[in-house]
Design a protein that fits this description.
Layout: H1 5-14, H2 19-26, H3 30-39, H4 44-54, H5 66-104
Length: 105
């Protein structure tokens, strides 16, 4: 799971702890703490341990997948643009046809 690596490091340094101290407090390996702080990846058990030690909620560390949100937003925007274009073309055809009908009458 993706977590905010910067926040983990901030909480650790705020306590004045080394990575090894945090690893010991969480009952995790030093390598796990290094991976969390460098890559922001952690298992749910690691996340729970970190939150317990820092006395924070999981929401404070979990990274929302901003890329997927952006992609969904772009898809939604593209869909809206296509629908708007189709409606505009059809409206133009109808107005043009009505204008021609009124002129020819």
């Amino acid at each position: 799971m993706e977590i905010n690596a910067t926040k983990v490091k901030e909480y650790r340094t705020k306590l004045g702890w080394t990575q090894q101290t945090l690893a010991d407090a969480c009952d995790l390996s030093l390598r796990t703490i290094q991976r969390v702080e460098r890559y922001g990846t952690a298992s749910s058990e690691t996340l729970m341990s970190l939150c317990a030690v820092f006395e924070i909620t999981q929401k404070e560390l979990i990274m929302l997948n901003q890329n997927s949100t952006t992609e969904e937003s772009q898809r939604s925007s593209a869909t809206w643009s296509i629908v708007s274009l189709i409606v505009s073309i059809n409206l133009g055809i109808i107005v043009g046809a009505l204008t021609m009908y009124m002129i020819m009458r």
